[in-house]
Specification:
Two copies of one chain form a homodimer. The first copy, chain A, is of the alpha/beta class. In chain A, β6 and β7 form a beta hairpin. The first copy, chain A, contains 17 helices and 19 strands. The longest helix of chain A has 22 residues. At the A-B interface, α2, α6, α9 and α10 of A face α2, α6, α9 and α10 of B.
Amino acid sequence: MKIALAQLNYIIGDFEGNRLKILEAIARAGKEGSDLVVFSELSVCGYPPLDLLEREDFIAACNRVVGNIAESIEPGIGVLLGGPEFNTSDEGKLLYNSVFFIQGGKVQQVFRKTLLPTYDIFDEYRYFEPNREFRLLEFKGKQLAITICEDLWDEQPFESEFSRSRLYTTDPFDKLNQFNPHAIINLAASPFAHRKMEVKQSIFTGKATRYGLPVLYCNQVGAQTELIFEGGSLAINSQGEVIKRLAFFKEDFGVFDLEDLAGGKAALSENPIPDRIEMMANGLICGIRDYFGKLNFTSATLGLSGGIDSAVTLALAAEALGPDQMHVLLLPSQYSSGHSIDDSVQLARNLGVRYDILPIEELFNQFRDTLHPLFQALPEDIAEENIQARIRGTLLMALSNKFGNILLNTSNKSETAVGYGTLYGDMSGGLSVLGDVYKTDVYLLASYFNRHGEVIPEHILVKPPSAELRPDQKDSDSLPPYSDLDRILEAYIEKQLSPEKVVALGYDKSLVKKIIKLVNQNEYKRYQTPPILRISSKAFGVGRRLPLVARY
Amino acid sequence: MKIALAQLNYIIGDFEGNRLKILEAIARAGKEGSDLVVFSELSVCGYPPLDLLEREDFIAACNRVVGNIAESIEPGIGVLLGGPEFNTSDEGKLLYNSVFFIQGGKVQQVFRKTLLPTYDIFDEYRYFEPNREFRLLEFKGKQLAITICEDLWDEQPFESEFSRSRLYTTDPFDKLNQFNPHAIINLAASPFAHRKMEVKQSIFTGKATRYGLPVLYCNQVGAQTELIFEGGSLAINSQGEVIKRLAFFKEDFGVFDLEDLAGGKAALSENPIPDRIEMMANGLICGIRDYFGKLNFTSATLGLSGGIDSAVTLALAAEALGPDQMHVLLLPSQYSSGHSIDDSVQLARNLGVRYDILPIEELFNQFRDTLHPLFQALPEDIAEENIQARIRGTLLMALSNKFGNILLNTSNKSETAVGYGTLYGDMSGGLSVLGDVYKTDVYLLASYFNRHGEVIPEHILVKPPSAELRPDQKDSDSLPPYSDLDRILEAYIEKQLSPEKVVALGYDKSLVKKIIKLVNQNEYKRYQTPPILRISSKAFGVGRRLPLVARY
């Protein structure tokens, strides 16, 4: 039996586009002699549809697409298509997260998801009733165990220390295995996390090894607002070896012979997962590209400060959208150093990006004049620093509004964590590119862009970071070195260690206390940040929900 | 048996404050001869603690408070205290949402929540494993059915048409009833919704009537960021009559004799729920007061435009915080009408609030000059309109940053829905007061404030709404009358009707289509709005999760 994996990039709710994409893949699979085509989880509507699942018309549209596909394709080919299914019982959640087995002009069978991830960015129990019935798909003499994403993740290593590997009280594959399947098929929508690539692969190779069965895993690819799905679908033989991995961060397609996989045909080639920073860069580029493409926007703007964050954001965006689609502004004040402008100009030239220089000193003075009746002779403080950032935000948004390009936010995760940023100033933007990238990784990304020669001027990589909002300001005036800061933040945010356990890693108690206090106090700023491209297992945004008003 | 209900206002994570409050209530209950004191759901930490529940140190702190309370109180009194409980099994979610029965110096028994609301603003299955064991609390010869909030809501009328009354496959009280309890006790954290007050009461009176049992319902009171808990705890006799309702929107305490309730002692007095708009006003005032109080802020600012939204926001805030804690700005441009300033000045004087007038024309001109190299002779458009709004936002935030008062956002739900607002301009603020109040209700709130005489100048109520961002602009230039707009929005947002069903209510098809498109297209703006005080069953914010990038 030949099984095709169709790794596609869906637009949520674009039923016509998704339908055509699916039909095209089925036609191709047919031409290549496939018996069965496997799509990803909720492929009919794209994952995650969120509260669109609460709309009757949305579910009806999903059903129409499934029906249309069943009627449009050759009756001989089998299709496993993910989509929401109405729960016809009069109790429990309204929907199931299901896979429709289509063949012979209609839906022949339905398989439902058992384990509904409801943590981090996942909210599946918000919408879905869990499956409680277990059976295999029998097709062309083969018995196939149909699973949906988390169904194979009954046991998993979470990054947080205060968590357990067995989050569920059921192991769906264990139940399916009682019926002696010939292979495991998994339809997934599993988002990218730069430190979890090996873990993810081991989930599937582990099942293959443990049960001596081939695994065919079809993942969604492409970005959906903040979530990036890396694709990387897998064909694994019954010895747990990866025979083939589909592309990362783009659509791909592969046909696999179940006999080969079941016979334990060896891996044809070494197929290592690329380096962490390369994966991160490609993930972010995919995230930018899809955000724009799926919103029907083509061009972007941002403010080049002369620092490393805006430089790396620009390099990523120029690769995602093309340098000709970028129009950046240099917005120097009286506190900006000469090298900030020179470095920024050099970067824009290296990348071939249009830039303009709009000094903000006069606007800043005008704001101070306007506010003089209220501020009188009060000393300058954070209020004046923020005015500069907000003038810049207003100028960038004016460009965005006038010419229809989206403002990219350039804040990194380290500063977003401790609240070093101005709401409605440098925290503005339609999309935060680096909001899940710690400063130390921003430097590694910069080096990655310079791997074939200087793109980001070397001086940007070596000068001490500064917000340049007052004379001679340096980040190191008020923060520890980023190497320490980032490790403390990661221990607190990703690993969710208690303050005591963070200190036990070897950091000063008062420093840890200060940093954690900054993280907690700045929840209110993060509440209003743009969507942040998620590349870690715990990003700021929808997957991290903390009370803004709290004393803890 | 005498049972006390302690309806308290907790600060999330303020363990010391919560502990002292709880001990004080237990002491009072003891003095008033109570046998048992009932607190609200998760009272130890305050509801909803959100992802703080994922922190080991947070759970440890909860446990310490429970232990301390058990050791601190008189051994004779019984206490039902809500708190998270560690799940000692090696599988399933890490926690239970539990009630600790404390007596004789220790936790004697634990009762766990069965129905875990995971919809709208609720995410309980994110953290908690459901209860599967049912038994009563036997105390002083009485058998008590201990339930936690949703446990009594096995059947409920949702506002959305595409939903069902039986969201769960278990009815916990039905199981408890098999053991023949003498009364039902419910520890709750049930948030306010202005159209659900009668429904909420009927849930409890309905259980009492159906089973012929008294119900004692203890709700949390006070606001937690966007969520407002109205309190209104109930003592209901076995005929389903409300004997006593504790106060709305403030802490309260009551002791009830179970014999009286069980004997069906009649209601002593008529106790109608106040008018919808009065409840809404008091809810919003509670929301503002607690947001500031719990963050340790005392003073607020906002921009008075001369329109009704900023006027009503100011009236609410002045009542919540005191007029002496308000400092408002009038920020006229060349497009502002004279009456806008006159009306605003009159309002500030009526309320006794400090105001300053800072004209923004020069700043606006300076922005146009700065941008001239880029904009050249392009016609003025939305870009220039937004610059004005952002200048105002920057001036208001400068005041906020300099003097430490929080900027209140004044956008209403109607304009937030259709995207009539400028990100980083009038959409700025620490808290949105009216973001869940439709424009037609804003007018009713204004009339409510004028019920004893003019507070909000009559002219503000009668003039046609305008953003005044270009000459002679009126809201009605591009929007239908608010009475129509609001009904369409409510049908689409609260009731989640399909576009076809909204049209079937009697509206023009192209109008409905246009409005729904505006709602969907502006998801990106709402992503970055401040927390919105929630007064309806479906507010923008944490309870409404839609993909920003989607085509639907």
